[in-house]
Specification:
The protein is of the alpha+beta class. It has two domains: 48 residues; 89 residues, SH3 type barrels, CATH 2.30.30. It is built from three helices and six strands, in the order H-E-E-H-E-E-E-E-H. The longest helix has 27 residues. The chain is elongated. The two termini are 51 Å apart.
């Protein structure tokens, strides 16, 4: 029983780690509303222009579409984060990108199946851990006379002589 429960916990944990809550869907610039999270794949010329952003994760920038005007659009790319107490504020840089420098534009969308998989996997892991704890607690050593005598409370006793 313990081995099966442990395997289920590990399987559910791995499944929930592999699932994605968000995915990127290819889109046209005209259909993406301002304020939407986007990922923009750029050509070489644009990547060279963006060297002041530092190391990029790949041939793309991810951020929030701020505005569109003609053949240009502005994306706020997160650069760093600042923590003030419990509040975490993301600091970004506004990047102007010409439409002819983009190879592909993708908008971020909630992946309902992946999110559900994460929720089910997390619940299974929590349930499995609770079951393992309960099973191990029951398997502890017991006294031959029953429960621990120190845990008994005497409510009524009659002395016999």
């Amino acid at each position: 029983m313990k081995r099966l429960a442990a395997r289920c916990v590990v399987l559910a944990g791995v499944t929930s780690l592999l699932a994605d809550c968000f995915s990127y869907i290819p889109a046209e610039l005209g259909t993406v509303p301002e304020g939407q999270a986007v990922r923009v794949y750029l050509d070489r010329e644009a990547l060279i222009d963006l060297t002041d952003l530092g190391e990029l994760d790949g041939p793309y920038v991810s951020g929030t579409l701020l505005r569109k005007s003609g053949d240009r659009f502005v994306v706020r790319v997160p650069v760093t984060a600042r923590r003030e107490g419990f509040h975490l504020q993301s600091l970004g840089q506004d990047v102007v990108i010409r439409a002819d420098q983009t190879v592909q534009l993708e908008r971020r969308e909630l992946n309902r199946f992946g999110t559900g998989l994460v929720m089910v996997g997390s619940t299974a892991v929590a349930g499995g851990v609770i079951l393992l704890i309960m099973d191990n607690a029951r398997a502890g050593e017991r006294l031959p006379g029953g429960d621990d005598p120190e845990m008994r409370i005497r409510l009524f006793s009659i002395p016999l002589r």
